[in-house]
Amino acid sequence: MSNLHNFLVEHAMFPFPQPTEGGPSTGTTDISLFEVPKLDREWKAKYAVRDNMLVQKLCNTLQNILGDTILSADAENQLLSRFSPRIDRILLSTGVLKALGDCLWECDMKLVVKTEQVADRGSSRIDYNLKVDDEDGGLVELPWNGIKLTWTCGQSLVPRMLTKAALYLGLRQMEWLFITCHNYWIVCHLVKNDHHPFLAYSPMISINGSSAPFRALLGAILSVTKKVPVEPTKFDPNMDLDTIDEGEDQGPCSHHHTGQRKAESGLMVTSSSQNSPESSQVWIHLYPFLNNMLALPQCAKSGNRRLWLTHFVGSGSTGNVWQCHFDGSIDFFIAKVVDVLCLADTDKQQRLHDEFNIYLTLESRQPHDCIAPHCYGAFEGNGVAILILDLCDGILNGWGELNDSERLQLYKMVWDLHRIGISHGDLEPRNIARTREHRLCLIDFSESKGSKICSELQTFQKFLWKQQPL
Ligand SMILES: Nc1ncnc2c1ncn2[C@@H]1O[C@H](COP(=O)(O)OP(=O)(O)OP(=O)(O)O)[C@@H](O)[C@H]1O
């Protein structure tokens, strides 16, 4: 018979590979500053406080909860098979989950992996979303997720990353977040408090020869599910999260493509509700891309250039797509929004720039509106880049929806595109839209390239006519 807590102190360790083995993560979570207004007051961290003892506090909580829980010889052998020689440390594999599940089992709790969204086109989202059986048999939403934020070893904790972690926690109404980067972990705790909710964060801790990261993780899970509070972090108002992104330092990605600040467009954007008081609305000033020659729609020209993102349409690998309208107008448009919060977002930003260049080419041709929705320009502001387009009625769900004349119309459209020297690069039904004038058009030029060969056209012909002659 041995003691579960002592067992964990001795065995709950991860391997410590060299940076070349696997390398640091460069993924990032998909969190938009536009989501800020959706945060409930108590979940919106306003400050960040470094707590050097945070991990230790979690380990102490775990020790208190486990007390002298005894392991039978069988249970010990079972756990040893999970923990020896080392726990598989990669969150995207199941080693950690199995080890956690076994420990919770010893505490008469069952771990259920609810959803698992693994890396998507180089951008890591939520790795795991877990549930634990609570004592009454109901399911508890487990506020723990391992996520990967862009953070290279040795880099100090940049405020921008903390802002993102705080947003992530607040939007998902979770208290704990474990950020991993190669051999290091950072633990974040959202401390809810009506007067000044804040984010407590640990210094970077190494997994080298230490079982503390795993114990802290289990401590966070058990403290929530068993409702055992962790020793509080002292509030310190020195680092104000709300003002972090203001000022001249616009972060690593800003002006990446332009190298200089552009003239302000007078355009502002928000996802705040129009019913919310002015004081709680979050507005971002927008600056046109340097090569933006396109004019805003007529309804935006009469003075008030405020853009309201009103309805979330969908998201893709480049960014989030919103329905929007200008102040005082009932004409709806589409805004394709890319977060530019950290270096890993530069890839998406580049895709938006490339897509905008395609729209510029199309807009300079007549009749441009046969191929794609009208584009009204591309802009960037604090942490975002945005493309404004005409709103279409919907997208195709499959090629089978097309009648004969639509197939011809579409084929001709792609033919025209290639004549201009552009290949779309992603001709799928989801990228074919129906306009409000009941025509078809192509959307999503984020994979488009200049093209000399027409293999895309040949493949497309096969899609449409299933290899039968025209
Ligand atoms: N002009 C538009 N009108 C209406 N809906 C649109 C428009 N543009 C995009 N959408 C919607 O938003 C979704 C995502 O847009 P889009 O495909 O441009 O984004 P993406 O990030 O480039 O996606 P992908 O991962 O396919 O490359 C589309 O599938 C469509 O439903």
TrEMBL record:
ATP binds at residue 336. SUPFAM superfamilies: Protein kinase-like (PK-like). Residues 307-470 form the Protein kinase domain. It comes from the Eukaryota. Residues 246-274 are annotated as: Disordered. Keywords: ATP-binding, Nucleotide-binding. GO terms for molecular function: ATP binding; protein kinase activity. This is Unplaced genomic scaffold K443scaffold_2, whole genome shotgun sequence. It comes from Laccaria amethystina LaAM-08-1. The lineage of its organism: Eukaryota, Fungi, Dikarya, Basidiomycota, Agaricomycotina.
